[in-house]
Amino acid sequence: MRKPKVSDVNKWYWTTWATDGYGELTEVAVGKADNFYEFYKVIVSKSGKSVGSKYFYGEMAWADVNRYVSDQTGWVFFDLAEGGQYV
Predict the structure, then answer these.
(1) What is residue 79's DSSP assignment?
(2) Lowest mean pLDDT: which of 1-5, 13-17, 67-71, 74-78?
């Protein structure tokens, strides 16, 4: 199956996390496309400034999301089921 276009997504379901570690507010938002299996958008910001956003799709998408968030924030464990807020 081909990678979906962002414009083809009907709605994103967002989960957010935030921590104020080492005097720096770090926020992560992960959006899951409602009409595509394994299609995610990740937004990372530090101290109110966006570090960037990135899209992930495919069988290994969730593992790639975890690796990207870990690389950007230093967080070791990251899971949608653990303490995320749906907004």
Answers:
(1) -
(2) 74-78
Report the pLDDT averaged over residues 32-61.
91
Domain ranges of the chain: 11-69
Cβ atoms of 39 and 57 closer than 8 Å: yes
User: Residue 56 to residues 6, 37, 67, 80: CA-CA distances in angstroms?
Assistant: 11, 11, 11, 15
31: number of CA atoms within 13 Å, CB side?
16
pTM to 2 decimals?
0.79
Q: What is the identity of the amino acid at 85?
A: Q
- The owner of tokens 């899951």 is 32
